[in-house]
Amino acid sequence: MSSSGTLQQFLLMQTCNTMVSFIFILVFIGFYLWYGTTKRIEVQNVFGVEAWSKQNPRVSKLLGSLGLLAGCGLAIAQFGIGAGIFTFSVVLMTILSLVILFIPLGILNKPTFLVVSLLSVIFETLL
To answer: What is the pLDDT of residues 40-71, one digit of tens each?
Structure first.
């Protein structure tokens, strides 16, 4: 019975450890869906959802809002209400800055995003 409890505690601990990476990923996806609906600039086709996002702005903004809310909810669940909201706002500002800076320069693309996300989840799980 104790080995079953230990396994459950280990799995719960691993799930909580990888939450920070998922917070970053959800905030990135949520913001990027909002970013694709802009009319001020011509958004480059980097991830393949930009044209769809431009054609369906209401759905894109709804899905983006859900991603941002899910990221905020995970941050609150992981760190508590005050620290979770603060963490979410810091993550959001970081993602906003990186997307606005790196997408037009071509530095942030699909392979880069996948490698960074995968390494983040692996390092967070193992360390």
So the answer is: 878 888 888 888 998 999 999 999 999 999 99
Q: Which residues of 12-30 are buried (b: 16+ CB within 10 A; e: fewer)?
A: eeeeeeebbbbbbbbbbbb
**How many CB atoms lie under 10 A from the CB of residue 35?**
20
> What is the DSSP secondary structure assignment for residue 18, as one 8-state letter?
T
Half-sphere exposure of 70 (CA within 13 A, CB side): 18
The one-letter amino acid code at 48 reads G
Q: Is residue 67 within 8 Å of 3, Cβ to Cβ?
A: no
CA–CA dist 24, 123 (Å, integer): 14
> Considering the entire predicted model, what is its pTM?
0.82
| Closest CA relative to residue 82, chosen from 92, 72, 95, 67 | 72
Cβ 19 vs Cβ 77: under 8 Å: yes
Token couple for 41: 């600039």
DSSP letter assigned to residue 40: S
